[in-house]
Amino acid sequence: MEKIVEKWSSEIATITIGATVSAGGTRTNIIKVGGQKTLPMLSFEGESLNKPVVFAEVIDFLSEDLWPLFYSNYKNIVKDIFSWIKEIEKSDPDGFCIRLTSCDPETKNNSVDYIKEIVPQILKATKKPLIFLGCDNIERDTEILPLVCEICCGEKILVGMAVKENYKTISLSSFANGHSVIAQSPLDINLAKQLNILINDVGVPLDKIVMHHTTGGLGYGFEYCYSIMERCRISGLQGDKIMATPIINLVGEETWKIKEAKATLEEEPFWGEALPRTINWEIATSLGYLQAGSDILVLTHSESIKKVKEIIRKT
Prior knowledge:
The protein is of the alpha/beta class. It contains 11 helices and 10 strands. Strands 3-4-5-6-7-8-9-10 form an 8-stranded parallel beta barrel, surrounded by 6 helices. The protein has a two-stranded antiparallel sheet with strand order 1-2. Helix 7 (222-237) packs parallel to helix 10. It is globular and about 55 Å long. The mean pLDDT is 92.
C-alpha cells in the first residue's frame, strides 16, 4: 500500500541552550531543540533537525513531603544540591533543570543574596547546558529570575516560568541577557497562543520561546495535555509561526508526587514495589509526551533518564 505523506507548510523553530567558551559561555557543549518538519515518529514525511532531549531536574530544597518516595530513597544526596548534581550526572543527562524552590516564602524564603551566591556555584558544578526555574511564587520569581538571567549572561540558559502576571519582566530579562524563556499557560491552546503573542510583542523573538502546558502525569491529566500539545504542533507545522515553538514537559515533578508514587507495597500489594513502579510511571509518561511532540523532557530518576535517552536514540 502506498504511504500517504502529509505535506506540511512550515517547521518548528530551533532554539539553542548552552554556550561554549568560543561563544562566550562556559558550557562544554550546546543543545539544539526544535526544527521538526513533521509530527513525531513520522520521519518518512520529513526529517527533523533535532531529536528530543532529556534534562535532569535538581531542586535546591526538596522537602520530605513533596516527593516522599524519592526523598526516602535518596535523602543522602538530595539534601545538598551539589551532591545531587554530581550523582545524577553519572546518568549523562543532556542538561540540568535547576528549580529554586528554597526561594518560596513558604519554604526557606531565600532572597536575592542567596541567588548571588548559589547560581555561580551551580555554573561551576556542572558544565552541561542549564534550565533555571523559579519557585512558582509569582512575586518572588519576578524578583529572582531577572538576577539569574544577569548572572548567567552569555550561557544561553532556558529560564522560566513566564506567566501572564510576570511575562514582561522575565521574558525581557531573559532576552536582554541572551537566553530563551519558557512561556507557561493553563491547558488551553488559545491561552498558550495568547501568551506567545504577548511575549513576542514586547520584543522577544519567537525563536527564543519554549511552551509549557502545565504538564500532567500519566493518569492525572496526561490525556488532555497530550491533545493540547498535538494541536499546537499541528498548528505550527501548518504555518502558524506563533505556535511553531518547541515544547517542554516537566515529567519528573508530576510523577513523584502522585498516589502511585506514595503508596507502599503494604498499602497496595497488587501494585508491586514502589520504586520500580514509579520509575516505570515516569518512563511511560515520557514516552506519551514524546509522541505528542515534546522537545525537552525533564526527568528525575537516573534510571528514567537512561532509559528514555536510549529510546530516543533508537527512534
